[in-house]
Specification:
With 247 residues, the protein is α/β, with parallel strands linked by helices. The protein has 8 helices and 11 strands. α3 packs parallel to α4 and α5 runs parallel beside α6.
């Protein structure tokens, strides 16, 4: 049995994960930690083998590092961790001899979208990422959108995307942002859970790849897969792709 502590169990994603952790095979659910509670004390008291963290960008990395210091493998879905923070966490896991994963998205469909977009990237001159989330999401663009832009750029290292700058912008920010030649556009609006579209362009044609989330239950299979994997081996993962056999 894998003893699991859930940070953010009263949050939007945590509320969907908690019932699944309670009934999942091979999982011994140790309970939840609310945002603002002492994570170090909770780790010491509950003694989990894995910490699942879906909290807030301000505390996600600190929670993961506290888990590693306690010999606990972190499974992190909290967005906003910088590349330097990922490097720090990976080193900490290696030094402590525990597994870990930070994934921009645990929905299998979203992971496949990013993988498919990476395969298409070398064939197109321009690319934009349009992501939509609920109005209460703390960060913009989403971690998934940022990871997608990096993947697209990495797929064509010798040929940067063409980003067409607009000569005249009537409303500041109307074109969104740009990362490595990829346009990034964030929508925050009630009635939407999570959606992302990658739009590729060539003269005379476009290709659109899209993923839509209708329930936060979509994260459950990916999280359970990650929990079992990091509990089984002391390896650090940046994303769910290796666990799904995607290369």
């Amino acid at each position: 049995m894998i003893r699991v502590l859930l940070a953010g169990h009263k949050g939007r994603v945590g509320a969907a994960l908690e019932p699944a952790l309670m009934v999942a095979d091979e999982i011994d659910y140790a309970g939840g930690v609310r945002r603002g509670e002492d994570i170090v004390s909770a780790l010491r008291e509950k003694q989990p083998r894995v910490l699942v963290d879906f909290t807030h960008p301000e505390v996600g990395l600190d929670h993961a590092l506290a888990a590693v210091a306690a010999g606990v493998a972190p499974v992190v879905g909290t967005s906003g961790i910088t590349p330097a923070g990922l490097d720090h966490l990976e080193r900490a896991c290696a030094e402590r001899g525990v597994g870990g994963i930070v994934a921009p998205n645990f929905a299998v469909g979203a992971v496949l979208l990013m993988w498919l977009a990476g395969k298409a990237a070398p064939f197109f001159d321009s690319a934009d990422v349009i992501e939509m989330h609920h109005a209460a999401k703390a960060d913009a663009p989403s971690g998934t959108a940022v990871a997608t832009a990096r993947r697209l750029a990495a797929a064509r290292p010798d040929r940067p995307f063409n980003y067409s700058a607009t000569e005249k912008v009537l409303v500041e920010g109307a074109r969104g942002g740009v990362s490595q030649g990829v346009g990034l556009h964030s929508v925050r609006i009630p009635g939407v859970l999570a959606e992302q579209e990658v739009l590729f362009g060539l003269p005379g044609q476009t290709l659109s790849l899209a993923h839509r989330t209708t329930s936060r239950e979509c994260y459950v299979p990916g999280v359970l897969l990650a929990v079992r994997r990091v509990a089984a081996e002391p390896r650090f993962y940046r994303g769910l792709e290796p666990l799904l056999g995607l290369t």
